[in-house]
Amino acid sequence: MTDRLRVLIVAPSLDILGGQAVQAQRLLNGLATSEQIQADFLPVNPRLPGPFRWLQRVKYVRTIATSIAYVASLIVKVRRYDVIHAFSASYASYMLAPLPAMIVAKTYGKKTVLNYRSGEADDHLRRWKLTAAPTMRRFADQILVPSDYLVKVFRSHGLNAKSIYNFVPLERIPYRRRTILEPRFLSNRNLETLYNVECSLRAFASVHDQFPDAKLTIAGDGSERRRLETLVEHLKLDTAVCFLGRISNEKMDELYHSADIYLNSPNIDNMPGSVLEAFAAGIPVVTTDAGGIPFIVRDGVNGRMVEVGDYEGMARAIVDLLRDHTLAVRLADAARRETERLYTWEKVKAEWESLYESL
Questions:
Q1: Is it true that domain 5-167+344-358 has CATH number 3.40.50.2000?
Q2: Which one, of 208, 194, 333, lies nearest residue 265 by Cα?
Q3: Of 349, 204, 350, the residue nearest 286 (C-alpha)
Q4: What is the structure's pLDDT at 46?
């Protein structure tokens, strides 16, 4: 069809494996089935052509070269589309990725969606007073967020936002009902300070004292990896904890299938897709209550939740699940039902189409 609304999704590619990249690709895949929307993709991290690829291997030079290529691609491509949909994190990432996309879009008279996805929104809006809220008011026709939590955060700063939930591909993540729960744990967060994987590690160490055959797999990478590996050595958990590093989506499906309890202990968060994926896979979730997590996890209903940083509370919640398999199955079943009810493409497709058409 030639009369479909043309939407350009601007986001990280899967070369930067993280929640934004994963959700952007899922949205593109979903919109490929739409009769109203024609969606295309522009990466904020374009690969430079062959002779210049080496520039992206040099620290600092990489940022400059990639930014130049990114803005150039915006100037060339944005004019062809009706709506520019820019995914956004916080702080400098906001300045480098979605803001240029919205400025170029407005230069061409295009409509814009700022898809803000970071749990650090409140701090960003409060501390970056001159470059955050004012530019959002000026250049974003619609601020879109994945959770009602962020709607409240933006409202507290005088900005209107609309929420459309993250979704997971249930056809790719089969549900396994864990009637027998083994002490096999999974953590799937980037190894950065705000995700506080150390809290999960310390909770696991306490559980390991009671269940010596317990194993923890940590998927993800980041600046905290070496420090966390040192902590594992200090806790004498070398044979019980495995750091896998950066993992593809396909490999993650296997990890979800083989794990029996999912651990999530961030200090700051919004609506983690990894928790929804654990829900879909039937893995009981033990998490801290950072940011928007209480909007999707309800303690004792579809998961277990403790206060931020409370690794002792996490350990107690884990042991409760290991000793009460009926509780674990009840929580996992409820989480899967909620995923089917709220967090699938079929549930959000009409909201996305309506959003674009309303601009």
A1: yes
A2: 194
A3: 204
A4: 87
Half-sphere exposure of 156 (CA within 13 A, CB side): 12
Which helix (H) or strand (E) covers residue 129, if one does?
A: none
**Does the 184-342 domain belong in CATH 1.20.120.1460?**
no
Chain segment 243-270, per-residue pLDDT in tens: 999 888 778 889 999 999 999 999 999 9
Equal CATH topology for 5-167+344-358 and 184-342: yes
Closest by CA to 200, choosing from 332, 314, 96, 334, is: 314
Alpha-carbon distance of 97 to 67, in angstroms, equals 8
The domain locations on the chain are: 5-167+344-358, 184-342
CA atoms within 13 A on the CB side of 19: 24
- Residue 213 in contact with residue 183, Cβ under 8 Å? yes
What is the residue type of 319?
A: V
The reported pLDDT for the residue numbered 1 is: 46
Backbone angles phi, psi at 45, to 5 degrees: -120, 60
- The pTM (predicted TM-score) of the whole model is 0.91
